[in-house]
Design a protein that fits this description.
The complex is a heterodimer of chains A (475) and B (222). With 475 residues, chain A is an alpha/beta fold. Chain A has helices spanning 8-16, 19-41, 46-62, 64-77, 88-101, 113-118, 120-126, 136-143, 160-170, 183-200, 226-232, 250-265, 300-303, 319-322, 325-330, 341-352, 369-373, 380-393, 399-412, 415-433, 446-449, 462-474, and strands spanning 81-85, 106-109, 130-133, 203-206, 210-212, 217-222, 236-242, 246-247, 272-276, 290-296, 438-439, 454-455. Chain A folds into three domains: 1-42 and 319-397, no CATH class; 43-298, NagB/RpiA/CoA transferase-like (Rossmann fold), CATH 3.40.50; 400-474, no CATH class. In chain A, helix 2 crosses helix 12. Chain B is of the alpha/beta class and 222 residues long. Chain B has a six-stranded parallel β-sheet, with helices on both faces. In chain B, strands 8-5-6-9 form a four-stranded mixed β-sheet, with helices on one face. A two-stranded antiparallel sheet of chain B has the order 10-11. Chain B is globular, with a radius of gyration of 21 Å. The chains are: A alpha/beta (475), B alpha/beta (222).
Chain lengths: 475, 222
């Protein structure tokens, strides 16, 4: 996919001015936050399970090499094949080679963020193989030739009317020529169109939510059932996934399942949780003849042992997106690549480099809601600060911002001088603001006041108020 | 052994600042697997579990019925199809459990056994078990119950022996571990297929079944 991360600011400006997007994002904010809160309230040990989940994933990452080789051995025992891909190009090549080995023309796909990460669809198309997205949201964005804008709801940025237009435009070739208005009719039409595609496909590609080292299972969690039809009907099933998806045992999967759906969609359990164990058995009546797993690294191994290791605990529930004021304002496309929201702002710089992704760590108010809802207790704000520091060290900030920070740092390191300057300055600003208590415009602060008012200082600095409080307490 | 595999494993070990795990380290990982469930998540008695299963399944838009024995199964299936105004042609899986039901008592039901095709609208499958905590069916998709049977037909009727309803997910794992080989697919099915992808409105029947009807049978002990 085309990378537009360096243009985050322009993307965000466009997103804020898009009324359709703003309508969709409004629904997302209210909907997902409320259903998660209800689901969490219904499970008394949810907080304890978050600790367990964090610890089990930390344990896995500390033994990742061992768990991956155990998983591999079990898949081979089941009659499957495991392929290792260092980067996106290797993963694409392996998929293509596998598709060609069975003469594939059509490939159905369940939702896979890794397939997005490696840019699989464009690559298959360029090589004469038609990829067909089957997750309804992915199908919609595929028709629109857009990337997904949310992990769970890839087409959340599309209004019902926009989906209706897309279906009218693309479903004519299947004899569907009436513009449908209502979601139930639209879902039914997509079901009808895609049903035949499942039966035609030569290869089915799914992602994986978890890989189980204990027994070689790959696990997908879906609500539509598309991932199951994708893997059972074609002759070959390819699981395209990444190395940090492995967990030690079934016990670990049940812990993660208990918090995943609640954090994501507020469900106690998604409609379908499917464990796949290799290709069809000799006496099975259906299932793929061959089963392949592609394990992608793409920079993840190098993140172990660094300040960014914790993001590898992420189980892609989307809770941090749903609770982020920035994501809620600009949506997923503004982030300019596959992953968005707080987890995307941390993961993307690690995968594509901080130079192209320098804006993302700043696309946060550091309000901390993401960390407070993350089922895996990932310290997202801390890592966003770490990326800001790295961007600063790499001199990726505009010179004026760097100079401003340098002046502030010099001053902050001299407390007496800092107090001497800020005290009178705050009193002056308070006096200038008068009774309104805010500024509509202020010299040198146009970047702030252009979009909103600046609240005026209350007359005393934080340090002065703190000192006053301490004195009162001692008395 | 491909270069990529060796490189990735070496990269992991370099980042973790250690070599391959020694035997003692590997044994410690083995000791982690298994163990009892962390909490009681459902009533200990069968009646309590079945009641919780039905509540939870119905809360996610499945329907349930309960019958005393397999003798009542054909009638229960007929009644459900009639009530839903559905055709009486059924694709049933080869599960031997279904052989024990007196299908000739319902001459209007046209029962076909095997795997479903694109035109099969009603499917009849047998669950391996149920999980009361979440109202989930445990579908053991092997030769007796093909995987596609749970997903292709628009209406899925599932036979669930009451004796096979356990409390939590964790109680299923010992059976998976005890199996000589696992089934090709093990699915936990919780309600009918659904999507929220158009306008963030939940619609049933996205790709899998639009309707999920669970018939709980009392006298089957397995």
């Amino acid at each position: 996919m085309r990378l537009t991360t360096p243009a985050f600011k322009d993307n965000a400006r466009g997103a804020l001015a898009d009324p359709n997007l703003q309508e969709s994002l409004g629904k997302l904010r209210t909907g997902f936050q409320a259903i998660r809160a209800d689901a969490v309230a219904g499970l008394p040990d949810f907080e304890a399970l978050r600790d367990t989940a964090r610890d089990l994933k930390d344990h896995t990452l500390a033994n990742l090499d061992e768990y991956l080789t155990r998983y591999e051995a079990k898949v081979i025992e089941l009659g499957g094949h495991v392929h290792w891909a260092r980067d996106a190009a290797e993963a694409r090549d392996i998929v293509l080679e596998l598709c060609r080995s069975v003469g594939a023309r059509k490939v159905t796909k369940g939702k896979s963020m890794i397939a997005e990460e490696v840019g699989l669809n464009e690559f298959l198309e360029a090589n004469g193989i038609e990829p067909i997205e089957t997750d309804l949201g992915e199908y919609i964005v595929q028709l629109a030739k857009e990337p997904p804008s949310h992990i769970l709801a890839p087409a959340v940025h599309k209004t019902v009317a926009q989906v209706a237009d897309l279906f009218l435009e693309h479903h004519g070739k299947y004899g569907k020529t009436r513009r449908l208005e209502q979601p139930p009719e639209l879902v039914a039409e997509a079901r009808d169109v895609l049903r035949a595609r499942y039966f035609e496909a030569d290869v089915g590609i799914t992602g994986a939510n978890f890989l189980v080292a204990e027994n070689g299972a790959s696990v997908i969690v879906t609500n539509e059932g598309n991932g199951d039809l994708t893997q059972v009907l074609p002759r070959m099933h390819i699981v395209l996934t990444s190395i940090e998806k492995v967990v030690p045992s079934l016990d670990d999967v049940s812990v993660l399942l208990r918090i995943l759906a609640r954090s994501a969609t507020g469900q106690e359990m998604s409609a379908y949780t499917t464990f796949s164990f290799g290709p069809k058995r000799a006496d099975d009546l259906d299932g793929p003849d061959s089963f392949h797993v592609i394990l992608l690294d793409n920079g993840r191994a190098a993140m172990l042992g660094t300040e960014f290791q914790d993001i590898l605990r992420c189980i892609r529930c989307g809770a941090c997106l749903n609770h982020c004021p920035i994501y809620g304002a600009v949506g997923g496309h503004a982030y300019g690549w596959v992953y968005s929201g707080p987890m995307g702002a941390v993961l993307t710089p690690a995968l594509i480099g901080i130079t192209d992704a320098a804006h993302l760590p700043n696309a946060s108010t550091l309000c901390g809601r993401c960390e407070s809802v993350c089922p895996m207790r990932i310290p997202l704000p801390r890592m966003l600060r770490d990326w800001r520091r790295k961007a600063f060290e790499a001199k990726l900030m505009p010179p004026r911002a760097r100079a401003g920070l340098a002046v502030w740092a010099w001053l902050a390191a001299r407390p007496a001088l800092y107090r001497a300057i800020t005290g009178p300055a705050m009193r002056l600003l308070a006096a200038m603001a008068g009774r309104k208590g805010r500024f509509r415009a202020l010299p040198l602060a146009g970047g702030w006041t252009g979009g909103r008012d600046l609240p005026a200082p209350q007359g005393a600095t934080f340090q002065a108020q703190w000192a006053q409080k301490q004195r009162t307490r001692r008395r | 052994m491909s270069d990529a595999r060796a490189d990735i494993l070496a990269g992991i070990r370099a980042s973790l600042a250690r070599g391959p795990l020694a035997a003692a380290g590997r044994d410690a990982l083995d000791a982690r697997v298994g163990g009892p469930p962390d909490a009681e998540r459902a009533p200990a008695d069968r009646e309590g579990r079945v009641a919780l299963f039905r509540d939870k399944a119905e809360a996610v838009s499945a329907t349930t019925a309960r019958i005393a024995s397999l003798d009542e199964l054909p009638g229960a299936v007929s009644d459900y199809l009639a009530a839903q105004n559905l055709p009486s042609a059924i694709l049933a899986t080869p599960d031997p459990l279904l052989d024990g039901a007196p299908w000739d008592t319902q001459p209007l039901l046209a029962l076909k056994r095997g795997v479903p095709g694109i035109d099969d609208l009603v499917g009849l499958t047998c669950a391996h078990g149920g999980v009361a905590e979440t109202g989930s069916l445990v579908m053991w998709h092997d030769k007796n119950n093909p995987h596609s049977a749970s997903f292709v037909p628009e209406t899925n009727i599932v036979v669930l022996p009451a004796s096979r309803v356990v409390g939590s997910l964790e109680e299923v794992w010992p059976e998976v571990r005890a199996a000589a080989t696992p089934p090709r697919a093990l699915c936990f099915v919780t309600g009918p297929s659904r999507t929220g992808d158009i306008g963030l409105r939940i619609e049933l029947g996205a790709h899998g079944p639009r309707r999920l009807h669970v018939v709980i049978v009392d006298d089957v002990e397995t």
